[in-house]
Amino acid sequence: MLCTCKHCNKSFPSRTYTSTCENCKALDREIYEKIKDYLDKYPNSNAIRVAEGLGIKASLILKYVEDGDFVLKKGTFESL
Ligand SMILES: [Zn+2]
Fold first, then answer.
1. Domain holding 43: CATH number?
2. Is residue 72 part of a domain?
3. If DSSP codes are grouped into helix, strand and coil, which group holds residue 3?
4. Which residues 6+ apart lie within 8 Å of 16 measured at CB?
5. How many angstroms separate the alpha carbon of residue 20 from the centre of ligand 1?
6. Strand 11-13 and strand 2-4: pairing?
7. Which of 9, 46, 61, 73 is deepest in the core (most CB within 10 A)?
8. Rounded CA separation 2/18 (Å)
9. For 6-65, what is each residue's pLDDT tens digit?
10. Is the residue at 62 inside a domain?
11. What pTM, to 2 d.p., does this model score?
């Protein structure tokens, strides 16, 4: 199938669904860890708050939620 990378928006072929291309794997991990750390410190933050705190786009954070890396609960979300 053809997947679209959530970081560089490039389309790439992949056997299983993935939202990160080979080139962005390290970056993906890095941002994931940052979000996780932030949520450990501020457990009930919403996506906007995390985005502002980390200086990344809220839309990118929501992609992580879509991928199932984090769970949204009543407008806030926490790590699994
Ligand atoms: Zn990419």
1. 1.10.10.10
2. yes
3. strand
4. none
5. 5
6. antiparallel
7. 61
8. 9
9. 999 999 999 999 999 999 999 999 999 999 999 889 888 888 899 999 999 999 999 998
10. yes
11. 0.83
Task: Find the domain containing 54 and state its range.
Answer: 25-80
Cα(22) to centroid(ligand 1), Å:
7
Cβ–Cβ contacts within 10 Å for residue 24, how many?
18
Centre of ligand 1 from the C-alpha of residue 57, in Å: 15
* Domains held by the chain: number: 1
**Which residue type, as a one-letter code, is found at position 65?**
V
Assess if residue 78 is contained within a domain. Answer: yes
73 strand-pairing partners:
76
Three-class SS state of 11: strand
CA 48 to centroid of ligand 1, rounded, Å: 23
- Rounded to 5°, angle at Cα 71 from 16 and 61: 75
